[in-house]
Amino acid sequence: MFRRRTALSVSAAAALLAATPLLAACGTDAHPGAAAVVDGKRITVAQLQARVKDVRVAQATSPQGKQLIMNTGRLNLSTLNGMIFDEVLARAARDAGVTVTRADIQDARATAEERAGGAARLRTMWLQQGIAPDQIDQVVRNQLLIDGLAKHLRADRGRPDGQRRLVDALAKTSRAMSVDVNPRYGTWDDQQVILGETKLPWIVPATTHQEQA
Questions:
Q1: For the packed helices 75-96 and 160-177, what is the interaxial angle rounded to 10 degrees?
Q2: Could you say which DSSP state residue 19 is in?
Q3: H/E element holding 193?
Q4: What confidence score (pLDDT) does residue 209 get?
Q5: Is 97 left (phi over 0), alpha (psi -120 to 50) or beta?
Q6: What global pTM score does this model have?
Q7: How far apart are CA 100 and CA 6, in angstroms?
Q8: Which residues contact 179 (CB under 8 A, 6 or more apart)?
Q9: Which residues contact 61 (CB under 8 A, 6 or more apart)?
Q10: DSSP letter (8 states) at residue 80
């Protein structure tokens, strides 16, 4: 397992370009090639790189491509953060009996596209957050799961105590899943359910090439 628990330190000025060296595989014997292990399930470096590449390819085809890439310089970290959070949220929702159907996702996405001013605008908004177009359904699903979990917990997300109750529930699930992160990506904070200094956009309303770690 990855045991180092040092704090994450990444320069804010490190806006990375697409054509940078490949990430090295994890150096431990227990989980070679893993970026993280969540409840015994490996998130491999290759899977992480593929997700990052999807975003960079989509950003590169956008008229604002250069700016999008510069503004998402910590894409490896934020992407891994999201991949881990997906697992934690899915478990918390399942344990609470919260489910989301394909129809629910389609309806919620249509509403989001309308509010954003169209499907293209929504895609651009999420590219600004480092989310590729083919991941938008997952983001919408997460939002619905969080809403359902909050309802199950009777946690008003508009109030600090409600938000805290939601985070505490996710933190409990996170601890139970024994999230173990390759130290090259920082450390996972069970209390805040977040990777190092990355941001967690999933718990607020969604209205709004390879990289070196």
A1: 90
A2: B
A3: none
A4: 39
A5: left
A6: 0.77
A7: 37
A8: 36, 37, 38, 39, 84, 88, 188, 190
A9: none
A10: H
Distances (CA, A) of 96 to 83, 90, 142, 192: 20, 10, 14, 19
The identity of residue 212, as a single letter, is: Q
Which DSSP helix (H) or strand (E) runs through 189?
Answer: strand 188-189
Judge residue 186's burial from the number of C-beta atoms within 10 Å of its C-beta, 0-12 exposed, 13-18 middle, 19 or more buried. buried
- Between CA 73 and CA 84 the distance in angstroms is 19
Record the tokens describing residue 193, joined without a space: 């359910």
For the chain, which ranges sit under pLDDT 70?
1-31, 197-213
Instruction: Please enumerate, as own/partner, the contacts of 44-51 that have beta carbons within 8 Å and a separation of 24 or more.
Output: 45/182, 47/83, 48/23, 48/76, 48/79, 48/80, 48/83, 49/22, 49/23, 49/210, 51/79, 51/83, 51/132, 51/135
- Judging by beta carbons within 10 Å of its beta carbon (0-12, 13-18, 19+), is residue 101 exposed, middle or buried? exposed
**Residues in Cβ contact with 14 at an 8 Å cutoff, skipping those fewer than 6 apart:** 73, 74
Per-residue model confidence (pLDDT) at position 90: 97
- Measured in whole angstroms, the distance separating CA 40 from the mean position of its chain's CA atoms is 19
**pLDDT tens per residue across span 131-165:** 999 999 999 999 999 999 999 999 887 788 888 99
Dist. CA 76–CA 45, nearest whole Å: 10
The pair of structure tokens assigned to 120 is: 């293209």
64 torsion bin: left (phi>0), alpha (psi -120 to 50), beta (else): alpha
Query: How buried is 91 (Cβ within 10 angstroms: 0-12 exposed, 13-18 middle, 19+ buried)?
Result: middle
